[in-house]
Batch of 3 targets.
Target 1
Amino acid sequence: MKGADSVLIFVVEDEQALRNDIVEELQEAGYHVLAAADGQQALDLLADSTPDLLLCDITMPGLDGYELLNILRQQRPELAATPFVFLTALSEPREVIDGKLSGADDYLIKPVDYDLMLATIEAHLRQVKRICRRHDDEMTTLRGAISGLSGGGAEHALDLISLGIVLLDEQGKQVHINRAAQEMAADADFIHVSTKGVWAVDPLSNRALQHAIAETLDSARAGVEKVAGVMLQHAHETSGTSILACAIPRADPPSSSHPCVALFLSASGRLKRVPEALLMELFGLTPTEAKVAGALASSARATDVAAELGVSQTTISFHMRNLFQKTGTNRQADLIALILAGPMMCRVPDE
């Protein structure tokens, strides 16, 4: 976790005296602080900054705290895992419920207890650290599983995996394609795979796929980890295929036989529903979050999940924000790919 002197806390509070007191307390604790007097000023300042945590008043003139939170969740997906703590003089249960449904992570009641405020901030920053570490460990495990396969005959083990897996060398050419990926490519309605590389049939999907491959190849050459998620559309269907592109950094210069990028393909409808109990254990999800995650991984559309579970899209959006936070992702494509990639590294037995 960052040291306090490198953590940026963003404070949004219209009462100047209280805002100044909060800023002073945070600075004395060693935090960097940005402060805004209202929601619009906060948006202007946030356009050029990425805070580690936000403290925000609910009742403000113009753009209130709920509206600010909603805008940030929609327009700044990279802040999905950034804790958002409301400052409020309202302690009615309805206010707390509304805030939670809006995606708030916690509440501090006015008048502010500054010891409690600092303890709350420290607790949420520790939680973010745990989430990031778990996500990094999961991705490292996935990359490590295939980083040394080439040339040793171990590629055959990939045929036992239900995910489609394509390994690319430093030029983006295919090193290995497992059986599941071959079966997907044989349909030829959404993806082509050859010794020269991988292409999507849909032009827009292909543009996104090639961008993701180029990004992860650059990262692998630089010895840096990188993950990019892409959703490919089928030519004649509304369903899609999620692809997770993972850079495989190497300490030594890569050769033509060494994989630099792994593509994990998960076609909608081709895999069994991910067991909810497994999702709960892997990602620390609640039963409801696991149900939503499993449904998302199967249908890929939030509207379909809402209809399947008999809840509103607002409820699904609320759970998706929690899923982004707990899995360390910030886009639906990345979320779905990670959900499928983690637990589906082995086939689910037929019932």
Target 2
Amino acid sequence: MRKAFFLLLLIVTSMGLQSCDSDRVFDEYKSVSTWNKDSIITFNPGELDSLKTYNLFINIRNNNNYRYSNLFLITQIQFPHGKVISDTLEYEMAAPDGTWLGTGFGDVKESKLWYKENVSFPEPGEYKVRIKQAMRKNGEVEGIENLEGITHVGFRIENSAQQ
């Protein structure tokens, strides 16, 4: 009887959490142990409605092994017919006092980072999103070979409020 109650409670809770996230169109994470400067993380959100607009986010989970207050990324959106849009992005990961800006309990913090707002995907077909770390130390030309402390990289697409 007690087991059945907890199972029912778990099902009701998970259904409630899913309904709170009605704007989500795509949300996926890739695990990272050490993020090599040549490693590209690819997401395949599939075909998207060409009549809608979307907000795009990059989600980063980091732990205390991440030694920097910011994060530089190079992103690409590849359109079905070959067009590619590239961006170099910088995000603050910590406050000036060293406190992580992300949310979460314990060592791992999650940051939901704005990528693009009110984006449309006009071409029919499959889109791809690629994310690469572009961190380097001050005064050095070469990038950081292996970036530690990032545990997961995620990509999220939400319906825009401008529908």
Target 3
Amino acid sequence: MSNSKPYIVAEMSGNHNGSLDRALQLVDAAADAGADAIKIQTYTADTLTVDVKHPRFQLSKGHELWGGEYLYDLYTRAHTPWDWHGPIFDRARERGIAAFSSPFDPTAVDLLEKLDAPMYKIASSEITDLPLIRLAASTGKPIIISTGMANLREITSAVDAAKGAGATDITVLSCTASYPTPPEFTNLRRIPVLAEALQLPIGLSDHTLGIGVPIAAVAFGAVLIEKHVTLSRSDGGVDSAFSLEPAELAALVVESERAWQSLGTTSIGPTDAEKEGLRFRRSLYVVKDVVAGEPVTAENVRSIRPTGGLEPDAIGTVLGRVFQSDAAKGTPLTWDLV
């Protein structure tokens, strides 16, 4: 069990819908919900791709959210303008939560360093961009690496690149890079496998609907949960269909901590919280006033709550015996009575 509750990251992505005011409202919503951090993405369409209308630059027609859209157009619509980064970071600091980003090229790292970003996240599609990972790691900041689509060799290579560049604080996120992700493809059982293989803390970057999957991830040892957030799914937006609304984010904060608290230890037996309950287990009691010489019967001795008398299983031994002294109703039955 981790020594602290899961770290909750609210991913803004493109859910600002092209409005700085909405972006700042999302920061406020994340802070109000109790999230630990708000995350954005630092790229432009030109730093990610080129404006070419060719099928290789086009999402499949059947894509659930962005079918048929060209990469350049999608990234133009979804990106967070670089001159918004300062106001977003400032608002987060004012609200007492961390603000950080996923850089997608060296110019993004340069910008984020000027803003004193406290950490960096490597997006799933950039896990094979080892030069980018080394550059982010060379800042000395904590590095979070998302692993959607990656095999163990690619994950290990990314971790080694970060370590080789000086990173000492690395968190790896189990991730399924489909949007939205069907729960059955989340494969939470790989969280402890990754933890054992990498000897690093493991979290979850989740794109399923709702909060059930990330809560379950906590039981498998996830120390960080990242979920996309929006002010309202009905407002639309590039990621709104699989994003949490503010009330849902607040529920995730509360329930993930509750799930973490519930992990406890491997001890089997009564806990401190059960001490009162132990008093009210059943035992054998005199349930009717009796006098010495009277036989023990099912009418004057029964198994009732609380404890104090003989174990319930002793009933077969005491039935038919004789009371050695008077006993009032409510007296625990003990061996010296019969």
